[in-house]
From TrEMBL:
It comes from Sphaerisporangium rhizosphaerae. It holds the Pfam family SpoIIE. Keywords: Hydrolase. Its EC number is 3.1.3.16. Residues 217-434 form the PPM-type phosphatase domain. Gene3D superfamilies: 3.30.450.40, PPM-type phosphatase domain. This is PP2C family protein-serine/threonine phosphatase. GO terms for molecular function: protein serine/threonine phosphatase activity. It is an enzyme of class 3 (hydrolase).
Length: 435
């Protein structure tokens, strides 16, 4: 910028909306050392639109990049400072309304944050009565509070402060940014609520607990839901006592994920327990569960299941097993020999006339039975699956003489290490060992 040709005491440029004003303060003849401002010597319209639009676009990208509701206030403040204001305080309300709480405070000079916080503690932040900015009295600061409103609900306030007055274009920009910030905050809250609901539903689908004492039986379970937010549904497991020295177990995989799969998961687990208490044998339980799934009609989902009963005997454990379309169950001998021990039968939710027959398996002292879902057997690395060429049997053969917990952990770690990318499928591992 070229300065005025005559001698001036002070000169500069100020902005208002789309206008740029170049001004000067000139000493007048006969005024001695005194000076007074004169009219602006030139005024020129400037186009700041593209710059502001770029700023808003970048801000929107940053705000859309997080779905953590605790991160959004921090992003808002750090976007605003120092571009639009010297400091920014973001106040939020709870998901059910309530008073405003200071969620994040940022100042261009970090050393002044604590002092500013004390000043703000003495100020009553106005509630949202309308959608227009509200001035705040705070020392020498020029302060404005911008409401954060999305879908007609108040989410909080964005308070900005600077030493001089807010130019109209800055205030308008902050107002626009506040609307975008409120939308980002609302989206993050909705996402967090859905994630909490998913986790609560997932917990409700897991067993209330496994037996504390299982004389003659050493067992271990690994369960890892996959996907963002650990989406509900998919794999499940259970192990529960049905009498003195007798237990039932199940490990299953519902086709798909989400609420529809979760409904079948809940149906399966509760049906297995209920029918066991009623005294039905393993084959009868699986047959009745198959019919119950089919009765769900359009909501029905295919289900693979490994279900069995364990009875303690003087020389180990006797098992009655049914594999309904499930990955094969493997028995590991203390010598390291691994063999498949069940016959695969029809998966559930397909054929109403399907009948099931239990296989009888004995586990001697030190023998291990391994049941997994296809999150293990179908773990993919490039064009290979973990269970190609008997991969799971080879892994299990290396686990001779290990405890049930050590076997389960060895398999889990092998699944994790098989590929670099995270697993896209749920994973469940059940290990039973006779002692």
């Amino acid at each position: 910028m070229v300065p005025p040709s005559s001698s001036v005491a002070v000169w500069g440029v100020s902005f208002s909306g789309a206008h740029r004003t170049r001004w000067a303060r000139i000493a007048l003849p006969g005024a001695g050392d005194a000076s007074r401002p004169v009219a602006d010597w030139t005024g020129k319209r400037t186009s700041q639109g593209p710059g502001w639009l770029g700023f808003l676009a970048d801000a929107s990208d940053l705000l859309a990049g997080t779905l953590d509701p605790d991160m959004v206030p921090a992003l808002i403040a750090q976007i605003v400072v120092p571009r639009l204001a010297t400091w920014c305080a973001v106040y939020t309300t709870g998901t059910d309304g309530g008073p405003l709480d200071l969620a994040y405070l940022w100042h261009a000079d970090e050393a002044r944050i604590d002092g500013l916080r004390e000043e703000l503690d003495e100020v009553t932040v106005p509630s949202v009565d309308n959608l227009t900015p509200v001035p705040i009295q705070l020392g020498d600061w020029q302060s404005l509070a911008f409401p954060l409103v999305a879908r007609g609900r108040s989410l909080g306030m964005m308070c900005l402060g600077r030493a001089g007055r807010f130019p109209d274009d800055v205030a308008q920009l902050a107002e626009d940014l506040g609307r975008r910030a409120a939308l980002a905050m609302d989206n993050a809250r909705l996402y967090a609520q859905q994630a909490d609901a998913n986790r609560a539903l997932q917990r409700s689908l897991l067993p209330p607990g496994t037996p504390a004492e299982t004389p003659g039986l050493d067992y271990s379970v690994v369960y890892e839901p996959a996907g963002e937010n650990n989406e509900v549904g998919g794999d499940f497991y259970d192990l529960y006592a049905v009498g003195e020295g007798t237990w039932r177990f199940a490990i299953g995989d519902v086709c798909g994920t989400g609420p529809q799969a979760a409904a079948v998961t809940g149906l399966a687990r509760h049906t297995l327990r209920l029918l066991a208490r009623e005294g039905y044998d393993v084959a009868s339980v699986v047959s009745r569960l198959n019919r119950a799934i089919l009765e769900e009609g359009e909501r029905a989902r295919f289900l693979t299941l490994l279900h069995g009963e364990i009875r303690r005997t003087p020389d180990g454990l006797d098992l009655s097993l049914i594999s309904a379309g499930h990955p094969e169950a493997l028995r590991l001998r203390p010598s390291g020999v691994v063999e498949s021990v069940v016959t695969s039968q029809s998966l559930l939710g397909v054929f109403p006339e399907a009948e099931f027959v239990a296989d009888q398996v004995h586990l001697g002292p030190g023998d291990v039975l391994l049941g997994v879902t296809d999150g293990v057997t179908e773990r993919r690395s490039g064009g290979r699956l973990l269970d190609d060429d008997g991969g799971l049997s080879k892994l299990l053969a290396e686990c001779a003489e290990l405890s049930a917990r050590a076997v389960a952990e060895r398999i889990r770690r092998a699944v994790q290490d098989f590929a670099i990318e995270p697993s896209a499928d749920d994973l469940a591992i059940l290990v039973l060992r006779a002692v």
